[in-house]
Amino acid sequence: MVEPVKEQDGSLMKESWNMLVTYATAGVLVFVLTFHLLLHSPLVGKAFEDTLSFGYATGNLVYYQFVFGLLLFAAVIHGFNGIRVMAIEWLHPTRLAWLLNLVVLVLMAFFLAVGTTTLIVVG
Amino acid sequence: MKRNQRFRSGLVPSLNPLGFNLERWSYVVHRVTGVILVGYLMAHIFETFQLGGGATAWANTMSALHSLGPLEMIGLWIVAGSALYHGGNGIRLTMNEVFGMFMGKPILPVYPYSPTSLGRNQKIAVWTVTALVLVLWVWAGLYLLAGLGVI
Lengths: 123, 151
Fold this sequence. Notes:
The complex is a heterodimer of chains A (123) and B (151).
Chain A: H1 15-38, H2 54-63, H3 65-91, H4 97-122
Chain B: H1 2-8, H2 11-14, H3 22-49, H4 55-66, H5 70-97, H6 120-148
């Protein structure tokens, strides 16, 4: 008798939903990250060093606050979920899956809080 | 307990690159670049947090980064390459997994078990992504070296 496959213990959502979130955030990142990189490319008519100036950096955060907010959330969710998926693939945690999910959620919340604070303070 | 030990035994063999096929290499590079990008993301969030401290705090952050010398641009070049590969390969994977493109038709497992997912179209897709990424990565390197005043 083959045992039925169970959901990972401690998950807040099904893995299929997690993958949907991964694909959705990846799709957002392709466009938003490209936009972010183009702001530091020769297309803006500045030397790379000049695109790192305080005025240019804060100006971008003010003008494109929504875009950078989207970038922050998509990158943090996609990135840390990716690390979680790698940990599951390599370590196959069963009893400690809840701990892995908790650590990833705490890290996500922390970096989202830091990034959101920057966007609010500068914007 | 036995079940867990069987799974754990796969960690070390999974790191041995001997015998990897093209898909497995792209899988490994996708994960390595992903880890690099998450590491940079964490540092970048802290870096941009300094903008909230005003122009002086930002200037101090920039001078601390510039004190790394060429390592700063080399690091950025590695991050740029990671982003290009992870993004390009991610688009290929999305076309594979979400839309079923380049996957080939399923067949019965017949020796020598060559995977239908690694057919001609898949190989073309992998090499196209690799070639595009390399071209863009060289261009990014020249741009960053120019910013460094090397060329």
